Amino acid sequence: xxxxxxxxxxxxxxxxxRRRFLQVAGATLAVTSxxxxxxxxxRSAHAQGAFKLNIxxxxxxxxxxxxxSKYGSTCSAEDETAGECFGGFGRVATKIWERRKAIExxxxxxxxxxxxxxFQGSLFYTTYRGKAEGEFMNKIGFDAMALGNHxxxxxxxxxxxxxxxxxxxxxxxxxxxxxxxxLAGKVDEWVILDVGGEKVGILSVLxxxxxxxxxxxxxxxxxxxxxxxxxxxxxxRGEGVNKVLLLSHVGFPRDQEIAAQVDGIxxxxxxxxxxxxxxxxxxxxxxATLVENPSGKAVPIVQAxxxxxxxxxxxxxxxxxxxxxxxxxxxxxxxxxxxxDAEIEARIDELAGPIETMKSTEVAEIAGPIDGSRETCRAxxxxxxxxVTDAILWKAADQGVTIAIQNGxxxxxxxxxxxxxxxxxxxxxxxxxxxxxxxxxxxxxxxSLEAAVNDIENGAGKFPQVGGLRxxxxxxxxxxxxxxxxxxxxxxxxxxxxxxxKMYGVGTNNFMRQGGDGYALFASNGxxxxxxxxxxxxxxxxxxxxxxxYQPKLEDRITVTGAx
Length: 564
Prior knowledge:
Elements: E1 2-7, H1 18-25, E2 28-31, E3 40-43, E4 52-58, H2 77-81, H3 89-105, E5 109-114, H4 123-128, H5 131-140, E6 144-146, H6 156-165, E7 170-171, E8 175-177, E9 188-195, E10 198-203, H7 210-213, E11 220-222, H8 225-238, E12 243-247, H9 252-261, E13 267-269, E14 289-292, E15 298-302, E16 310-318, E17 324-333, H10 342-360, E18 362-366, H11 374-377, H12 383-395, E19 403-407, E20 418-421, H13 422-428, E21 435-441, H14 442-452, E22 464-467, E23 469-474, E24 484-491, E25 494-497, E26 503-509, H15 510-513, H16 520-525, E27 527-530, H17 536-546, E28 558-561
Parallel strand pairs: 4-5, 5-6, 6-7, 10-12, 12-13, 13-15, 19-26, 23-28
Antiparallel strand pairs: 1-9, 2-3, 4-16, 8-11, 9-10, 14-15, 16-17, 18-20, 19-22, 21-26, 21-27, 23-24, 24-25
Helix pairs in contact: 12-17, 13-17
C-alpha cells in the first residue's frame, strides 16, 4: 500500500430510513441470519464485482493505554482478574491484527484509521506526551489519523513532535499553521491511498471549537468545516479520486449535517462526540447511520464510542461513481474475551514502571461510585461536578471564593466505590489545569451560565457544574434566549437570589479563567484574576482525603425543566 500526501497549511437532513436508502440506491435488502433490519446489507446492480474496502477504525482513545473499567478509568488488577475490563492497546492490537489477517486471507482490501483524540486522559500522556500512544499506533499499523482537538492541549509544539514520531500521516484540511511554527508543513491536508489498485482519498476536518476548547495558540487557525469540504471534495475528485472518505473529528450531529450538505463524500468515519453506533446495543444509532446528500446519494456514517472499548469494523462496496452501494459491519466490543497481545502488554508494563508508584498512592475511601460520565456531566448536575466544585470552594475559601464553576467536559472519568488512588483522580482531571480565582458580577455569572448551556443538545463540554450556586435550566427555551432561570447563591446558610451588580468571588480552573470552553466573560470581565494554583487534581485529592470516607451527593444544584 502506498500513499500520496498533499501538504497544506444548517441542519442535517434526517437519517435515511432503510426504505428511502433503497430507493436512493436502487437496491434490494438482504436481511442477515439474525433477521434484524438494523444490521443491513445493501446491494445494487452497480455493486456486482465492484471495489470493496474494509475499514477498521477507532476514535477518542484518550490515552487509555491500559485496559479500562466500566467507568472508563484505568482498570484495577482485581477487575482484570475477574474479567471485567475492556480495551487498552493490548486488546486493540489483538483485534485489529486478527480482523486484518482474516480480511486479507479472504483476498479483500483493508485499511486502519483513527478519528483523533489520542492525547490526554491518563498518566501515560502526562508522562510521555504522546510518545507512548504513538509507539503503539506505529506497532499496530495505522494508515491515517485525524487531528482531534485534544492533540492541541499542550500546544502545537507537542503535537509537532508527535507527528514527527509516528509512521503514518496525520491529516486535517481546515487548519492553517503560520510559517515559522514548529507544526508548519507537518499536517497533511489529505492522504490518497493506493488500495488494491484503486485510489482511496481520505479527507479530514477538525471542530472549529478547538480554538476555545483546547490550546492551539494564536498561530493556528481552524476554518469552517463544511465550507472547506465543499471545495476540497471537488478538488480531490478533480484529481481522479472518486472514493472519498471523511475521517472527521467534529461529532456525530455535525457529521450528519456534513453528509446532508456536501456532495461527493462516500462515507464518514467520525469521532469527537464519543457516540456508540451499534446494531446490537439497544438505543444506539444504527451502524451505519445513513444520511441523504444533496444529490440524493446515501452516505453511511460510523463512530466507535471512545476509550478503546470498541473497534469499528466497516465493509463498503463502491459503485462506479464512488458512492457506497453496499455497507455492512458493526462495532466490536473489546471485552475480556479478547486476549491482550503479550508483547504490547509487556511494553506497557515497562512504560508504566516510572509512574506506577504515584498512580497507586491511596487518596481516600469512597463510600459509593462517583458518577463523572460524559452523558451526565454535560447535561445536568452530576456527582463528580459536585465533588470538584466543593473542592474548589474548600480550597479557595480564604481567597474570598463563594461560587465555583467547573466545565463538565473537564471531567473525564468516574471513580468507583472503594479506595481511590492518585491515578483515579488524575483520570478524572488529566489536563494539568490549576485552580484559578477572580471576582465577577452577578450579571456576568448569569450570562456565562447562559452561554454555557446553549449547546447542551450536542453534549458540549462547557456545560457548567456549580458549587455555592444553583439554577434552573429550562429546555423549552431556545439557546441564548433565557434558558437559565432562578439563579441563587448561598449566603451564609440561606439561598438568596443573585444580585446582578454585586461582585462575587468565583473559583474555577485556569483554562476557563482564561476564556477557555467559551467562558469569554471570565477572561474579559474577571476582576483581580489569579491563577492561584495548585493543580486541580491535587485540590480534589486533598479534599477527598480531608472528607474520607467521601459520600457522593446530588443536591438539586441544577434543576432541568422543559426537556422532552
